[in-house]
Amino acid sequence: TAKVLGGPIAWSITVNTTGSITQVTSFGVPRDTQEKVRVALEGKPFVSTALGGIVGPVWTPLPIDEEISTDAFGLFGVRSGWYIPISCLQENLVALVIVGGPSAGDFAEARHRDLVNFLAQETSLIAENAILREHDHYQATHDSLTSLANRAAFEDYLAHALAIATRTSGHLAVLLLDLNRFKDVNDTLGHHIGDALLNEVAQRLTSVMREADVVARLGGDEFVILLSTSADISGAKVAAKRLVTALEQPLLVAHRSIWIGASIGIACFPEHGTDPQTLLHRADLAMYEAKRTTVGVVAYDASVDRAQSSVPGLLLELPRAIQQNELVVHYQPKLDLNSHEVLGVEALVRWAHPTLGLLGPEQFVPLAEATGIIRQLTSWVLATALGQAAVWRASGRALRMSVNISARDLADVTLPDRVTAALVSSGVPADQLTLELTESAIMSDEAKGTEVLTRLRQLGVRISLDDFGTGYSSLAYLERLPLDEVKIDRSFLGGGNGAESFLVRSMVKMGHHLGLQIVVEGIEHWTSYESVARIDCDELQGFALSPPLEAAQLEQWLDDWTSNLPSGSSHPWRQAE
Ligand code: C2E
Ligand code: CA
Ligand code: CA
């Protein structure tokens, strides 16, 4: 500026974002004078200096004249000239330039003023651009929610750290962390709480790790930590356990204590990989293994790969899932056609898997049946369904409960004892429980099956033959078995044409003749209701009435159903049409 203006003296004073003077430089000033001013000003809050007192909030260049110059400008050896605040974004002062001369009347002309004005604006723009670029860089490398480094920045750090570790034969560890119950929190308490929780987690992570470790958020509820100083596998495990323990403590979010928990997978350099992608991928595999086995921390090894690729993975998880109440029971209502009331429900199990979502019974019941785990599963469903029945009974809803039993259960001579135990502990009368079995389950060992069924019936429990018509048995088969009910498989309802309903009608007649209760299941359309009503069966079940529902939803559904039921109507389903 001094050069352009032709003046002999120029000072530049730089101010940082917190308002302190960080740099003092000069032009045309003796070295020792500059040094004296520098020592006097650097590190001081700008506003506390004599200069700060007069510049105030004015952001356009102002002339220096003798009246105001004594205190503020004496130090700089300037008696006349201009002081030029350089501001940027939100009027932050980033620098102050003083140009002038040691005597009065220097630089007083209009062309000087215009030039100074122009320079001030130009410089402010440059400063603004620089800050915006820095801001962009920050945004590109940081996660906007938690202010942690983002994935791109983490990969850069990791590549850099790997280069150094390779040169120095050092060790590195990548810890991939995933929260255990984040989805639940987000779904039940809302995104605001979810976001606040992620912030709390970020803070807790950084507070537990050392300064030199890099903590980043990869997205969602996934975080990654780079342990850079000579972290070998055992050291990494210790650090990971520390993190898991830290996240087992409740987090306080919006006046709530939230228990979130976390699983961590570890991959180390050089043992598990030498490039960022491999390390991140293997840490990810190890993390899934940690989730799957619920052990909290798993370091990658070749067996993790194998475990991930094998189908029975779900099977290994099942016993734990049962213990930890990951299974849930939904209830599907059955409509009694004599009273037009819902007198019973069927318990249908689901698995709320932490990573795979809600799994239907087809996805895991066959696995459980192929091993002994079905015993545990059946006992759990029995206890849960009867527990629910007891709750409903206590609140005035006497609903019969149907529970599905597999072939393997029937081969188990302790089944009647297990059923008795579940009845006793729930307090539900035995005749309120119906056990549903398929023909193939009974036929696989007819003598033993019949024996167990007979003992169950002696307890007072009702027995239902499920999926009737899909097996190989004849109607005559029904006569030999100790049964109370038959459920006609939905495949017979198909298009609802004459032949099918003739078949169904015959089955119903035959069943009634044998003194059996007939349930028709899988009714999806109102038209099939009508045709089924004509065939004189006892109970209906199907999506058209209601899909299987969670207990609370079913209560709501029952209330709605009852209140829409006109008294004396013989076709209540028409109401819902
Ligand atoms: P299921 O015993 O025949 O149960 C009826 C199945 O048909 C249920 O499927 C139910 O959701 C479905 N469904 C009901 N109404 C309709 C309809 O109108 N249309 C169609 N297309 N489907 C309908 P889900 O819950 O997937 O259960 C499938 C099977 O898994 C069950 O067939 C049963 O064999 C077995 N299962 C379910 N829960 C358990 C359990 O706790 N233990 C055992 N051992 N097996 C179970
Ligand atoms: Ca069934
Ligand atoms: Ca069935």
Describe the fold and architecture.
There is one protein chain. Mean pLDDT is 84; it is low at 568-572. The chain has three domains: 2-140, GAF domain (Beta-Lactamase), CATH 3.30.450.40; 151-309, Reverse transcriptase/Diguanylate cyclase domain (Alpha-Beta Plaits); 330-564, EAL domain (TIM Barrel), CATH 3.20.20.450. 46% of the residues lie in helices and 22% in strands. The chain has an eight-stranded mixed barrel, surrounded by four helices. Strands 2-1-5-4-3 form a five-stranded antiparallel β-sheet, sandwiched between helices. By secondary structure, it is of the alpha/beta class. The longest helix is centred in the N-terminal third of the chain and has 32 residues, at 110-141. Residues 346, 404, 436, 466 line the site of one calcium ion.
Strand-helix topology:
Elements: H1 2-5, E1 9-15, E2 21-27, H2 31-41, H3 50-55, E3 62-64, H4 66-74, E4 80-88, E5 92-101, H5 110-141, H6 151-168, E6 172-179, H7 182-189, H8 191-208, E7 214-219, E8 222-227, H9 233-248, E9 251-253, E10 256-258, E11 262-269, H10 276-293, E12 297-299, H11 302-309, H12 313-323, E13 327-336, E14 341-353, E15 357-359, H13 365-369, H14 373-394, E16 400-404, H15 407-410, H16 415-426, E17 433-438, H17 439-443, H18 446-458, E18 462-468, H19 476-480, E19 485-488, H20 498-513, E20 517-521, H21 526-534, E21 539-541, H22 551-563, H23 572-576
Parallel strand pairs: 11-12, 14-16, 16-17, 17-18, 18-19, 19-20, 20-21
Antiparallel strand pairs: 1-2, 1-5, 3-4, 4-5, 6-8, 6-11, 7-8, 9-10, 13-14, 13-21, 14-15
The structure holds ligand C2E and calcium ion (2 copies).
One calcium ion binds next to loops.
